[in-house]
Structure formats: structure tokens, C-alpha cells
Amino acid sequence: MGVTKRPVFVRAETLWKEYVMGSTPLQVLKGAELEIRQGEIIVVIGPSGSGKSTLLHILGGLDKPTRGLVSVGGQNLFTLSEEQRAAFRNRRLGFIFQFHHLLLEFSALENVAMPALIKGESLKEVRFRAERLLQEVGLEERADHKPSELSGGEQQRVAVARALINDPALILADEPSGNLDEENGARLHKLLVDLARKKGLTVVFATHNPDLTKRGDRVLRLVDGKLVPVRH
């Protein structure tokens, strides 16, 4: 089934986000609208400060819009309590950031397992899934290594595996290759997109990287707080 025939999975309506800097309001999003179909890979571009990270944080329920609505899989995120929204994020969403945010005292396998442990599963229950994901990102031999023993590209691949441990339906990736060189960045992009296609995941990338714009189904640019199509 083509992307255009799949159901809408993420919907953002008239998103406004305003921050107050001293006595001056700063409007970052100004009525942004977005529909993403199930299994679609969207790339959002725009200069630094245009609101890409803000948009992803709101789509993932990490931040609240000043006005507007976000629904993921039919669930309006902002009718949920903070606790319910955190549980929804843990269960349905996966996040990948520019900085890997791995826990330095834990092994790669334990870092991958962490979202499932937070959900209440035991390491014994989740170990097989974590090992399988490390295999999928090419790090099965590094399972017992701590982050300080891994390269930057390997750390980000652990972060990718961690984002997938709870079988999320939506992945939000904010400059995932921002700390990598061009070669490792392209390798990470291919890995992410290949895994997303294989698992039927919906993905939103925020990036400056031109390599990623070639890999998405659609490219959107944030211009003056609104999303403008670049490529369909």
C-alpha cells in the first residue's frame, strides 16, 4: 500500500509556541500544521532557531504548545495528564537526539534495555530483545562495553537500538548525526531509514544534513513558524 493511501498517524493542528524572554515574547511556531501517514518518513529542515527541535518536542509530548492540538495514533497528547503522557511516550514513541544521552555507568545492552526497565520489565525479560536490536545495528560484539569504550558512531547506534526497544510506532530524531562526521552520519541515516522501512515505523527527522533529505518520503521546511513543503 502506497504512503498516500495509509491512514494519518500523526496530526498537528494550528501549533503555536511562544517563549517569554524577559519581557519580550518570542514566537517560534506560528500556526504550524502537519499530517503524517503511518509508515511515512518526514524530514523537517530549517536554519538553527527556526523551531525544529521545538516542533519535535511538542510532537513527542515533551513540551506543550501555547495553542494547538497534537494527536498520535488517534490519541490527543495534551488531554492526558503528565503521568499518562510519560507512559504514552514510553510505550509508543522513540527518541533519538544529537547527543546520545547514554548512561555512562551502564553497558550498551543495559542502555538499550533501559526504557523497558523503566516500564517495569526485568533485565532477564528484556535481554533477548536488547541483544537482537544490538545485532540489528551491528553491535552485538559490543554489548558489554560501556559508552566510553565506544566510538561516536557506535554510541549513536546504541541510542537507535534504545529508541526501538519498546517497539514504538513513532520515532522522533533530532539532528541524530549532528555529532558525527559525514561518512558515519550517512551510515547512521541509512541504518535508521532501513530499520524504519523494515519495521513499518513512522519517523520525523529534524536536520540540517542534505543526505537525510534524499532519504525521506517528504521534506518540509520551517519558515516563519509554519511548515512549507519542499518535496512531496
Kindly provide the name of the CATH class: Alpha Beta
Average pLDDT, to the nearest integer? 89
What percent of the residues sit in helical stretches (DSSP H or I)? 25-40%
Find the CATH superfamily. Answer: P-loop containing nucleotide triphosphate hydrolases
Query: Helix segment count?
Result: 7
Question: What would you say the CATH architecture is?
Answer: 3-Layer(aba) Sandwich
Instruction: Tell the overall outline.
Output: globular
What structural category arises from helix and sheet content? alpha/beta
Q: Order of helices and strands, N to C?
A: EEEHEEHEHHHEHEHEE
Task: Report the portion of residues in β strands.
Answer: 25-35%
Largest sheet: 6 strands, mixed
Terminal CA distance: 17 Å
What fold name stands as the CATH topology?
Answer: Rossmann fold
What can you see in these coordinates?
This protein has 232 residues and is of the alpha/beta class. The protein has one domain: 3-Layer(aba) Sandwich (Rossmann fold). Helix content is 34%, strand content 29%. The chain has 7 helices and 10 strands. The strands form 2 sheets. Strands 6-7-8-3-9-10 form a 6-stranded mixed sheet. The chain has a 4-stranded antiparallel sheet with strand order 2-1-4-5, covered by helices on one side. Helix 4 (123-136) packs across helix 5 (152-164). It starts with 7 loop residues before the first strand and ends with a strand.
